[in-house]
Amino acid sequence: MKHLTTCVGIALSIIVLGLSTGWAEEIKWKAQTAMPPEDSGTRHHAKAMVEATNEALEGKLHTTLFQLGQLVPEGEMGAALSRGVYDAAYMPAMARTEAGNVAFGLPFSWEDIDDVMAFYYDYGFLEWMREHEAKQNIFFGCPLPWGPVALFSNFPVHTLDDYKGKKIWSWGLMSAVIEAFGAKPVWFDPGEIYMALKLGTIDGVLFGPAELETMKLKEVVEYINLPAIIDPLVLDWTINLDSWNELTPEMKKTYEKVMRENIRDMYDRIAVENQMGFDKAKEAGVEIVRLDEKEEARLRKIAREVWEIQAEKGKASAEAVEMLRAFLKSRQN
Fold first, then answer.
1. Buried b (16+ CB within 10 A) or exposed e, 49-86
2. For residue 10, is it within any domain?
3. Dihedral (C-alpha) 225, 46, 258, 25: value to the nearest 10 degrees?
4. C-alpha triplet 264, 65, 49: angle, nearest 5°
5. Which positions ≥6 away from 291 have C-beta within 8 Å?
6. What percent of the chain has pLDDT over 70?
7. Number of domains the chain contains
8. What is the sign of the dihedral through the CA atoms of 82, 98, 166 and 290?
9. 108/58 Cα distance (integer angstroms)
10. Given a cut of 60, is residue 135 above it in pLDDT?
11. Which range of residues forms the domain containing residue 192?
12. Which alpha helices (DSSP H) does the chain contain, by range?
């Protein structure tokens, strides 16, 4: 009996000690990327984010990254994240809310990563997005600038009229821009883009230059059409709000620090692959075509008209567009 009492006492002491020192079981998260495994964003954004946060919070939080479609279909990622089917996502905000189109990047808006970082972190757009998405039980973690998005196609664009009747894989408000010139925007799982181009199901794709090499798009396109419509396009690292709130204040502080400190390094790694993509495509015989000044001016004019259309899609969209306008004006002064 004395031995039993001693054992119980030791067990209770261990439990009390664990509670008093904050000892707790490691939290397990599941994350999914919205892009294919070979995509530069999946490797240098999603995979790198998981590795960095796992290292910084070792023993406290461990995230397992699942590839596109392994947990939920790409088109259901936002809703499933909101419901807590999984815990974190690498995806574009425009796939979750209308105002997310501004987070993703309006055509011909910011010009580089410095603009993106200043808009989000100095001008207050990060906090605005967090308040906006909290209504859907989502915590907007951080922006992840990806690089320029241009048209890779099997036809040259010398004038904007060349878009007429062409089927283009597109996303965000770029779809509205090219639709204004008669193109037919389509969207499906990005992992299917290569075969769609090879089979002629689509005539072109608005995508990042790294993927000319990493996804082998250089094999199924003949032209790179410039200028880029968004540069840089911005995806994000986003977390289910309930999952986020399970973390202690200290864990949240560490997680925030890791996100902020890794954005530029991740962008720089993708930038190297973007240049490689351009170079490899040119070596493979892909031709670069650039609009002349007159046609580019037409393109930019349509892009700004699309901003107005976006602003009319609701109060949140109007606020987000106005924030971006005001920010860009401040950068000019």
1. bbebbbebbeebbebebeebbebbebeebbebbbeeeb
2. no
3. 170
4. 15
5. 157, 158, 159, 160, 225, 226, 227, 299
6. 93
7. 1
8. negative
9. 41
10. yes
11. 26-332
12. 2-20, 40-41, 48-56, 77-83, 100-104, 113-117, 125-134, 174-179, 193-199, 211-214, 241-245, 249-283, 293-311, 315-332
Place of tokens 């880029």: 228
Q: pTM for this structure?
A: 0.90
Residue 23 pLDDT class (50, 70, 90 cuts): low
- CB burial class (10 A; 0-12, 13-18, 19+) of residue 26? exposed
Phi, psi dihedrals of residue 203, rounded to the nearest 5°: -100, -15
Q: Is residue 89 part of a domain?
A: yes
Tokens 């990042």, residue located: 208
Rounded Cα–Cα distance for residues 39 and 148 (Å):
14
Cβ-contact 222, 287 below 8 angstroms: yes
For residue 262, give the CATH number of its domain: 3.40.190.170
Token representation of residue 10? 């030791």
pLDDT 10s digits, 237-263: 999 999 999 999 999 999 999 999 999
Do the domain assignments include residue 12? Answer: no
Residue 154 falls within a domain, yes or no?
A: yes
Establish how many alpha carbons lie within 13 A of residue 266's alpha carbon, considering only the half-sphere containing its beta carbon.
28
